[in-house]
Structures are given as C-alpha cells and as structure tokens.
Amino acid sequence: MGYFKRLVTPDDEEAFVDGCRELYKQEWEKALVHLSHAEHIPDGAFLAGMASMKLERFEEACRYLASAAERSEQLNALLGKYGLTIELNMPITVLVAEYIRPDKHGALLALTEANQRLERYDSAVKCLYELHKNDPDDVVVRLSLVEILMQQYPSDRAVDRQVVRLCKGIENESTCNTARTHAIQGSCSQKGLKCWTLPGRRSQKR
Questions:
Q1: pLDDT value at position 91?
Q2: Rounded average pLDDT over 130-135
Q3: Is 34 exposed, middle or buried (0-12, 13-18, 19+ CB in 10 A)?
Q4: Where would I find the H helices in 36-173?
Q5: Which of 49, 96, 147, 172 has the maximum number of C-beta atoms within 10 A of its C-beta?
C-alpha cells in the first residue's frame, strides 16, 4: 500500500492489509500483531484466528474464530475489496488435510480444531454438528465427527450406531473402515485414531 493510499485508508484496513502481507510471508507473529488491530472486521478476526492457530495460541484462536463465524455473511468482503485470496492448509485427520478459506465452513472447521486442542470436546462436537447440518455429505466433517465421537464415547452403543451411519458411503477411507469395524464389534478402540493432527505432521491432502 503506497504512501498516499495510506493517507485515505482507515487504520483498521491498513492493519488488515499489513497483516495479510505478513501472512503471505508466513510471518505469523508479525501478522497477528497487525490483524489484532482489525479483529472487529470479520476477515480480520478470521485471519487473526488462523495466525493464532499457527502459533498454537488456541485460546485466542477460539475467540477470533467464533467472532468470525458469527459474522460469516461478511467474510471475504474486505479480502475481495483488495483482490486478495487466502487459503491455509490444516490437517483434519492423520490422512486428510483441508484448505481453510474465509467463510463459515472454514471458520467452524478451524474453531473445531482450536476447541479440541483445548480439550473442549463438547464445543468441538457442536461445531462439527453445525457443519454436518449445513452439508451432510461433507466427507471431511463426517470423518472428523467419527474420530472425535469414538475418542470421547468409546463404549456408547448409541454413538456406535451413529458412527456406522456417518461412515455410510465412505468406502476407501481407512479411518472410517476402522471406525465401522470397531463400532459393529461394539469395541470402539481409540487405537490409531486422532482427530486433527498436530501442525507439521504428515498428512494427505484431499
């Protein structure tokens, strides 16, 4: 942003643009400093949440991402104004990764991860159910639900039946095959199952 452009640009938008510049350079700390001054803008809150996730500041991430999700109809407005496109890769399971975009789906998916990292599993499941309601066919969301339900309710027969329903039609995903087998056998073992891998672990893009 040039000198004269900055003279007529609101401070919060200037901070937002500076934050985006640092995001593109993967300077997460610097990005968060700028974006925290633009958190009242939905796009600013979303990107501040994603920068917080990269820095493993999950409490901050929850606050920013919840704010962005609540105002999802305004997401991507400021990014679009400046002609910016941002996608951030986030592991979903040990086999699947997802590109997170500035929309309600992306905000809720990232919020799920932040809640899990804080061991707020009820809040994570609530986010996933909302995502599943919005798009019942989303395989990524279904797999995430399967894993967290099996982790948190390993001996609940009602959950076993729900796991089987969620896995229906997902024939080639090893996580779901494992979940289906354990659920049918009535032994929901946690072995080999982890919803959302740590940053930097190996994952397979989907």
A1: 76
A2: 95
A3: buried
A4: 42-54, 58-70, 77-81, 104-117, 121-134, 139-152, 157-167
A5: 49
